[in-house]
C-alpha cells in the first residue's frame, strides 16, 4: 500500500507524529506547511526516526495555486488537515487572522479536494467545542457550547462547514477528531512540541520550569469543585493521538457511502488534575518541580474528559500510554531541546 496522504501542518506538533505513524503502516505522507509555527529541523527529526526524506511543500493552505500543483503532481488519496493557528489568547486579539487562516484555509483545502476528486478528509477539531459539559464523561452527542474564543469558534465553524459540504451532495468523506489534551513526544526525542515564547499549555510549562527556562509554574486555581481543587483534563499521549489519525484514514477508506461525516472524541477516558500531572512528572523524573498556587485563569473549564466508546468502536483504537509515559517522553524531549 503506497497511498499518498497530504498532511497540512505536517511539520507541527501533532502532524509530525502522524507522519511517523503513517509511514510505519505503509502510507506515503506528503507535507504542506508554511512553518509559521514549526521549524525545518522537524524534517531532520523525521528522517532520523524513519530514514526517509518526506516530500515537503513549503507554503500556505490559502494558496490555491500551490494546492492545485500539489494535487496535480501527486495522486492524493486523502488529506489530514492540521494546518491552523491554535493560540486561544492570540485569537481574541486577532480574530480576522484566525478566521482567515483556519476557516478560509479549510475552505481552500475542501475546494481543492473536490476539484481533484479527493474524498477522504480527517479534520483536527477540539474538545473546546464542548465548553464546560453538563455531564461527564463527555460524549459526541453532548451539546456544543457557544465558543469562548475566535479559535474555538473556528473549530465549530470548521466542523459545520465540512458537514454542510457533505450534505450538499459533494463526494467528501470526513471524520472530525475532537482531541482532548495532547501531550508528550516521540519516545526517541527526535520530535516533540516546540512552543514559541512562553508556553500557554501546562506540560511544556512544566518541562521548561524543570529545565530552568522558567522560574516556576503557577497552578491556575485550587478552589475548583474537583478532588484536589485543581482543574481536570484528559491528557493523551501524542503517539496515541497520532495512531488515531491512521485509523481514521483507514475507516474513511472503508466507508461505502458516497459522502460521509462523523465526529469522534479522541482522549483516554481518564481525567487528571493539574496536581496529578505535576506528581506524575516528579515521579518519573525524580525532580521536584517549583510551583505555586495562583488565581484561576479566565475562561478555563473546570473539568472535561472524554467518553471513548465511539473511538473504540469506529476506529478500533485505544490509547496505550499512561500519564507517566507522556511525562517521561515530554521530559526527554525538553532535555534534548534545552541542550
Ligand atoms: P502546531 O502549531 O504545532 O501545528 C500546526 C502547523 O500548521 C504548524 O506547523 C504551522 O506552521 C502550520 N500552519 C499554520 N497555518 C498554516 C497555513 N496557513 N498554511 C500552512 N501551514 C500552516 O499545532 P498542533 O498542536 O500540531 O495542532 C494541530 C491541529 O490540531 C490544529 O488544527 C489545532 O487547532 C488542533 N488541535 C490542537 C490541540 C493541541 O492542544 N495541540 C488540541 C485540539 C486541536
Ligand atoms: C491545562 C490545565 C490550566 C498552564 C487549551 C486550549 C484548548 C485546546 C487544548 C486546542 C488547565 C492548567 C496551565 C499553567 C496551569 N487546544 N495550567 N498553569 O486549558 O485544557 O486547553 O489546550 O484546541 O482549546 O484552550 O490546556 O494546557 O492550557 O491547561 O495551572 O501555566 O493546566 O488551568 O487546568 P486547556 P492547557
Automatic annotation (TrEMBL):
The keyword Isomerase applies. Its cofactor is NAD(+). One of its GO terms (biological process) is galactose metabolic process. One of its GO terms (molecular function) is UDP-glucose 4-epimerase activity. Pathway: Carbohydrate metabolism; galactose metabolism. Pfam families: GDP_Man_Dehyd. It catalyses: UDP-alpha-D-glucose = UDP-alpha-D-galactose. Residues 134-155 are annotated as: Disordered. Homodimer. This is UDP-glucose 4-epimerase.
Amino acid at each position: 500500500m503506497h497511498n499518498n496522504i497530504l498532511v497540512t501542518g505536517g511539520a507541527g506538533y501533532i502532524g509530525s507524529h502522524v507522519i511517523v505513524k503513517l509511514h510505519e503502516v505503509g502510507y506515503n505522507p506528503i507535507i504542506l506547511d508554511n512553518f509559521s509555527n514549526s521549524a525545518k529541523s522537524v524534517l531532520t527529526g523525521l528522517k532520523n526516526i524513519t530514514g526517509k526524506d518526506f516530500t515537503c511543500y513549503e507554503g500556505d493552505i490559502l494558496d490555491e495555486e500551490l494546492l492545485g500543483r500539489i494535487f496535480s503532481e501527486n495522486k492524493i488519496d486523502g488529506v489530514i488537515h492540521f494546518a491552523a493557528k491554535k493560540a486561544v489568547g492570540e485569537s481574541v486579539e486577532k480574530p480576522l487572522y484566525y478566521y482567515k487562516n483556519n476557516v478560509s484555509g479549510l475552505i481552500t483545502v475542501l475546494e481543492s479536494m473536490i476539484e481533484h476528486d479527493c474524498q477522504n478528509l480527517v479534520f483536527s477539531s477540539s474538545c473546546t467545542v464542548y465548553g464546560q459539559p453538563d455531564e461527564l464523561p463527555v460524549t459526541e452527542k453532548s451539546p456544543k457550547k457557544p465558543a469562548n474564543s475566535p479559535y474555538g469558534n473556528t473549530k465549530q465553524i470548521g466542523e459545520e462547514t465540512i458537514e454542510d459540504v457533505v450534505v450538499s451532495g459533494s463526494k467528501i468523506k470526513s471524520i472530525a477528531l475532537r482531541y482532548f489534551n495532547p501531550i508528550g513526544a516521540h519516545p526517541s526525542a527526535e520530535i516533540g512540541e516546540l512552543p514559541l515564547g512562553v508556553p500557554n499549555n501546562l506540560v511544556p510549562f512544566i518541562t521548561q520550569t524543570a529545565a530552568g527556562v522558567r522560574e516556576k509554574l503557577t497552578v491556575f486555581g485550587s478552589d475548583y469543585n474537583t478532588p484536589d481543587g485543581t482543574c481536570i483534563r484528559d491528557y493523551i499521549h501524542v503517539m496515541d493521538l497520532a495512531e488515531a489519525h491512521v485509523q481514521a484514514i483507514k475507516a474513511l477508506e472503508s466507508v461505502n457511502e458516497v459522502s460521509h461525516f462523523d465526529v469522534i472524541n479522541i482522549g483516554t477516558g481518564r481525567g487528571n488534575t493539574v496536581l496529578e500531572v505535576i506528581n506524575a512528572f516528579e515521579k518519573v523524573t525524580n525532580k521536584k518541580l517549583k510551583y505555586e498556587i495562583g488565581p484561576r485563569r479566565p475562561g478555563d473549564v473546570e473539568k472535561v474528559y472524554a467518553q471513548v466508546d465511539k473511538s473504540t468502536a469506529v476506529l478500533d483504537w485505544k490509547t496505550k500510554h499512561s500519564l507517566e509515559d507522556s511525562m517521561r517522553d515530554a521530559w526527554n524531549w525538553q532535555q534534548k531541546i534545552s541542550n
